[in-house]
Amino acid sequence: xxxxxxxxxxxxxxxxxxxxxxxFGLAAYLCxxxxxxxxxxxxxxxPLEMVSHRICWSLAFLMILVLGKxxxxxxxxxxxxxxxxxxxxxxxxxxxxxWLVFIYAIxxxxxxxxxxxxxxxxxxxxxxxxxxxxxxxxxVQWVSILLxxxxxxxxxxxxxxxxxxxLLLAATFGLYGLIRKSLKVDPLVGLTVETLLLAPIAFSxxxxxxxxxxxxxxxxxxxxxxxxxxxxIVTAVPLLLFIGATKRLRLATVGFLQYITPTLHFLLAVLIxxxxxxxxxxxxxxxxxxxxxxxxxxxxxxxxxxxx
Length: 308
What we know:
- This protein is mainly alpha-helical.
- Helices cover 80% and strands 0% of the residues.
- It has one domain.
- It has 14 helices and no strands.
- It is found in: Cell membrane.
């Protein structure tokens, strides 16, 4: 896998790797953008049960890929690297928390909050890149981050409560991307180990639910069972694409591509699911959109200057 280094987008494979990274990123964020449609279709499943199914079915799907690719030796070798395994334990907790909060948001009719969270996420990625990877930020990027912060604060003051769903989604996924970028592990092998670490807990919980007759899976609906069984593919494919993108691109570039997901969430929330979009939402989103617009213009300008 090509690895992005320093503050530039150089890495093994050069421009070819960057093009691959952009393609992987676009595909991942388009998939995530329509996630609410899938999770609305399985809304009768509780968030914790759905997360457990995502883990177990993802592991089954990933193990097939690992065996087909002949990467099982690499996976075994990873277990002999305590430091890498410890880092993967942390990334595992972060992605599981992100899944749980996201599914809760969908089930609670808070798609708009998930949209806000993933609009904030690109700027969180930019900030994390500055703090941990020493990626240089110019004044416009700092202004973008400040505008996003003002948007969150305005929404919190207007409703008298912090938009914790949005902040948790942005923080957990931003940190997950940072960790997976810095870890030199094949995306497929790393993701398989992550799900393997969670699988015993997830499977035990599902088994407990089945024994107590409270599980949605195998409760009599073949359609629901089929949709739940798809959760492995639905979960693993965009994550593999995302990790492949982070390995080839700067976090700032990955952050730019992330606009796709919250835009689709926003459109679904307002136009399809009929969630209320208040004046406070308009002002808050306005701050964030202005920040993103400034950042996008600066990124575009930088690219044009490099190509001239």
